[in-house]
Known about the structure:
This protein is α+β, with helices and mostly antiparallel strands and 98 residues long. The chain has one domain (17-96). Helices cover 31% and strands 34% of the residues. It contains two helices and six strands; from the N terminus they run αβββαβββ. The protein has helices at residues 2-15, 60-75; strands at 27-33, 36-43, 46-52, 78-79, 85-86, 90-96. Strands 1, 2, 3, 4, 5 and 6 form a six-stranded antiparallel beta sheet that branches. It is globular. Residues 1-19 form the signal peptide. Keywords: Signal.
Amino acid sequence: MVKYSFLIVLVLAACGAQPAPEFFGAERYETSRDGRDYTIFKKANRFEVIRLGYVARGDHDRIRETMLEVVESITKCRIKPNTIQGDSGEMRGSLNCS
């Protein structure tokens, strides 16, 4: 039983960040900022950003800001502020890439 539990954990850990179904086939980017890892998916004018790893209770506001900065830096597009959905673990929204 222990062997199977270890195998399941190993397989899940190898998966990394996976996109939401609407981002299947999207461009995938991986980056680090301030010691944290982020995965960004861009498809047409939409994005999804996923933070990997643990965040302490008081750091969530700062992480949300960093996530948005990372998206704009990687995609070279501006985020449409009124389209942002999500939290400090995963966010989605629309981009203006004109």
